Amino acid sequence: MKFRRQFFKQNGGLLLQQQLSSIEGNVEKTKIFSTKELERATDNFNKNRILGQGGQGTVYKGMLVDGRIVAIKKSKELDKEKIKDFINEVVILTQINHRNIVKLLGCCLEAEVPLLVYEFIPNGTLFQYIHDENEDFPLSWENRLTIASEVASAISYLHSVASIPIYHRDVKSSNILLDEKYRAKVSDFGASRSIAIDQTHLTTNVQGTFGYLDPEYYQSCQFTEKSDVYSFGVVLVELLIGEKPIFLERTEGGRSLASHFILSMEKNDLLNILDARVKDSSAHEELKKVAELAYRCLSLSGKKRPKMIEIAMELEQIRFSQNKSNDQKNHEEIRNARTEVTNHWDVASSSGAALSIDMEPPFSSESWGLSEKQVSSNIK
Questions:
Q1: Which pTM does this prediction carry?
Q2: Catalytic residue chosen out of the listed positions 85, 170, 214, 228
Q3: Is 43 a catalytic residue?
Q4: Which residues contact 334 (CB under 8 A, 6 or more apart)?
Q5: Which alpha helices (H) appear in 298-379, and where do they start and end?
Q6: Is 379:363 a contact under the CB 8 Å cutoff?
Q7: What is the pLDDT of residues 42-89, one digit of tens each?
Q8: Is 32 helix (H, G, I), strand (E, B) or coil?
Q9: Measured between alpha carbons, how far is 310 from 5 in angstroms, rounded to an integer?
Q10: 51, 25, 151, 161: which is closest to 96 by C-alpha?
Q11: Which of 283, 287, 233 is nearest to 258 (CA)?
């Protein structure tokens, strides 16, 4: 108990309580968990409960007393000098409320390293569905376009709608989870890392992932909202081409998926690089529009890239046009089916003429479960 109290103070527990009490309407939504609660939830952090491990730490699956399934992130370490920044970030992230962003439910500060508690998202990452085929959820073009639109909406919310603008800084397909209905959920804001506040923006200090990082960021060392746009552009290309962001064996055109895509677009060679699972799609116009959008997102100049809110609106328009096209196609199919049905019925023009029926499928006597005699009798 003494150690727990010590860790709680050391990890900024008193500061967090103070911050939460000053936020109206959010105190109930944000919870400071005890170590006992999370040990019980994870069966003492049993190895069988591990969902994933990485450079930042380990994520465990747990079940709270109220029956909620959660993901508990146990970080490897936290710089003691940046505790205040960590607490500020927890407060900000617990206030984010968007259907396509993983919800941070709270944290535990009684352990040596703070633990973060998120809602549990059951169906894995977008990365897995792009690069490992899954029979349960085949990644059709329609599904890809929906996911892209949902992710754009989430990042646009962070940039433009959240109380303080937030940059994700690590947008990639493995940080996009899919829930029970295969809706996209943007995750991993690096909440265990430091944050920096300037005059207008709160930014999460995440270094990012090779293959997704904005080249302009390398040169200027300044991360902007357009850096998230670049990373999102790489995700769009992954959805279009079905390749990983870094080619380990390719030498021609470089090992970067982004540079390979840009080169192909400039050669007007999009069709030859598309993922085979979407190449045969009838939505050629939509594919082309999304490719052109991705091309603009990957501009070497941040100023030439669109804003996330513009990207979200454009993708929604493309989705709308595709749905409209599908509706028209469905109407045509129904109309054709009706024509086929009426063609089976040959009604004589004279009133006394007999009614004859073409008994080819699907209007055969067997399909109705009737004998030829019953059919003749019913017609008479």
A1: 0.79
A2: 170
A3: no
A4: none
A5: 308-344, 365-368, 372-379
A6: no
A7: 999 999 999 988 767 899 999 999 999 999 988 777 667 667 767 777
A8: strand
A9: 48
A10: 161
A11: 233
